[in-house]
Amino acid sequence: MSAPPALFDCALRRVRRDRAFRGNSSEFETLVAGELVERLEGVRHQFRTALVINTGRGTVAAHLRARGIDVCETDHGPAFAAASGAILCDEDRLPGELGLFDLVVAPTGLDTINDLPGALIAARRALNSRGMFLGCMMGAPSLVGLRQAASRADDASGFAVARLHPQVDVRAAGDLLVRAGFVLPVADRITLDLSYRHLARLLGDLRSFGGSNAMVDRHPVTRKWYRRLEEAFGAAENETGQISETVTLVAMTGWSTDS
Hints:
The chain has a seven-stranded mixed β-sheet with strand order 3-2-1-4-5-7-6, with helices on both faces. It is α/β, with parallel strands linked by helices. It has nine helices and seven strands, in the order ααβαβαββαβααβααβ. The protein is elongated. 39% of the residues lie in helices and 22% in strands.
């Protein structure tokens, strides 16, 4: 049986990740790091070693080190990896021996990889016999307003193409954890209600988070189409001059064993 066609362009993912490195920290990145740190604070298990996948600016890794945990970091972006001394690798090709870590954390990147089941299996295999996995990704439903604006811009242009990549919902995330072999799997949803004055600010946050379009089958954005997108997005402006947008974060937790 042949492998399914790739949804995401791996080289473009790295380019997008390096562009995120050159920008400022996004609101999404800050919120995700805070959510993961808060969840770890509620876990009584004592962690000694941890692997942080797609460490980015190292917020989660710094928190773990402050707790006395020995941390190994990876990133699929060359710039982030070089800046933090992380290992450059894809999420489904993690470094080190099997069963090496007490904790594996994936703050970002899981929603834009071709083999999400494979990445979760790799994370489980990196854990020791009583290890914990904690991951977070942008899931469904997210960016409803932006998707609607893009659809209206496409309608005005006379064609429709995929502008934003597919998203995993909570139920599918839970099923993927089970499929990857995790026990005590939990997937839940965190809804972020955000406000923007300009479309450019929202798109900037998406780029800084590494969440812009990296699909293989994508259509170039022309200036004319972008102006239509701005008009459609701006039409939802409220009385305060803000445009509301919703982002759904899907948080995933699983253990290597239930002992």
